[in-house]
Amino acid sequence: MGVLIAPIGDGEIHRVDDPNGKPGNLACWYVCHLDGVPSCTFGNWRTGERYSVSAGGISCEITARELRAESIARDHRRKTVLLSAQAQTARRAQSLWESSEPASALHPYLTRKQLPVLSIRVMGGWLLMPMWDIAGTLVNIQRIDNSGNKRFLKDGRITGCFSLVGAASLPTSGRLYVAEGWATAATVYAQTRLPAVAAMNAGNLKPVAMALQQRYPELDLILAADNDHRTPGNPGITKATEAAQAVGGGLVWPQSCGDDCTCTDFNDVANCRRAS
Do residues 5 and 26 make contact, with C-beta atoms less than 8 angstroms apart? Predict the structure, then answer.
């Protein structure tokens, strides 16, 4: 069709200009898949042309129905592979959890952060923070080494999952804090004696809050944001605000300790104030 592009192989529809039309017409489109046998489907909405080309170099005109069927089949295969990988990681997480030992308050990360031992375990020097889904199933583990480096298990679920601090099981009503990191959640619990969950990253605050509200609508959710005051846009407060607005929850964040303060979360501020 005379269109020169550098195709993106992400399985999504991308639109480009028909060179025979006015600039910005976006009449042409393509979809490229790199899984299995690499292939691209492309066409022109204006003329109705549709073609498919694979790694074998064979192209032919196809129908819109065939295009939809192929897309649905690829999505199904991709989802099946993803679910299988997540299930395998959940089994590994359960095995690691059962084979590990209760953590000691003398672990370097806990002593540096001045954190209590709260339902976490240790294996080979790594702290193990369990991640649960809303149904109470262990689906992943965040590992933290002596220096504070953090790793999730490969292919494990994260979105909408969390680590629970300060309770044996999720409460069904009352106040529950939703924090970004485990250290923040543990600090909030130590200060309030109320349970908290750690979403493990700012982008997961909203999915976690929404999952909690949908399952337990009687919960009083309070987002305990990181205050990334030295980062443009303050992503900690921004993401926590989005989560709080989505569930009609409360929002709190730590105030800076002074003009030169580098503290960003409740744990940082608590330790800074102890030192001063």
Answer: no
